[in-house]
Amino acid sequence: MMRWLTVGKGSGEWTGRTILHIFTLGVMARAAILVFLCAGLLLTLTSLMGGMHASFETVLLLSCGLAAVSAVIAGGMAWQAGRMILKLHQQSQRFEQLSRLDALSGILNRRAFSEALAEAGPGCTLMVMDIDRFKAINDTYGHTTGDEVIIRVSSLIAECLGPSVAAGRLGGEEFGVILNAPALEARVAQAEMLRSAIALEPFPVPGRALKVTVSAGLAEILEGRSAEQVYASADKALYLAKTTGRDRLVHENAALDLILDIMPEKAYDHPLLAGRV
User: Fold this and answer.
1) Are 117 and 72 in the same domain?
2) Same domain for 25 and 127
3) CA–CA separation, 61 vs 38, rounded Å?
4) Where does the pLDDT of residue 25 fall: very low under 50, low under 70, confident under 90, or very high at 90 and above?
């Protein structure tokens, strides 16, 4: 009965004022029907038992009147209750959204980004990106400037890659981006475009424009490969990007070639590298 009276709407379905109107009208209609039937039955039984003498028209009129009054009262109560439910639901949604965002940068926090990475399917590339020499920026210009750099880098991610790309701050000066262009070459181009845009962006500080660069490691999201494995591979590629000059990208597929390029020639004789050069 209670579910029938309240139109069966749970709090999880309250997404806007339209549902509030539907809820209110539904409660009014059901209250009117219930009161009309009960009043009509009661008046008819009373008349049949001799308690009163009323024609069918009188019973119908009284039942309709009581139903209308009940509908108005129930509608008013439903409207107020619905407004409270709607407000609570909107606040809950807002809190849930805020709990998924990094307070400083406004992009996904580590937990929310990890969920997005776990849900990403094959054909996407994880980019783990780190601001070069960020500690020196904080030490030289102060943490306020460091925060402004993080905020601007976060904005450039959205400006360069668009809102459909999931991006998050993984902690400190490290960011994660899930590139979703159709082809691998296009995803690498997306990453390079972002790296270049950050390198060309002027970051104003008192008396000068600060040059900020980033290094990044890329790894492929593949069928049967866990999110932890993808991140570990991208992180290793990032380490190579940092140790081979910074302000560059390293894809996991090119990591071995890069290692061989920077190793001394005598190291090629190592058993682990036999037959790979």
Assistant:
1) no
2) no
3) 14
4) confident
